[in-house]
Amino acid sequence: MKLQIGDKVPDFTTTAAFRDTDGRPQSSKWTLSEQVKKAPVLMVFYPGDNTRVCTKQLCDYRDNWASLSRFKVQIVGVSTNDKESHEKFAAEQNFQFPLLDDSSKEICRQLGMLMFGIGIAQRGFILVDAEMKARYVFKELLPVFKRTAAEVAEILKTHVN
Question: Would you tell me which CATH number, out of the four given (3.30.70.100, 1.10.238.10, 3.40.30.10, 3.30.420.40), belongs to the domain 13-159?
Answer without folding.
Answer: 3.40.30.10
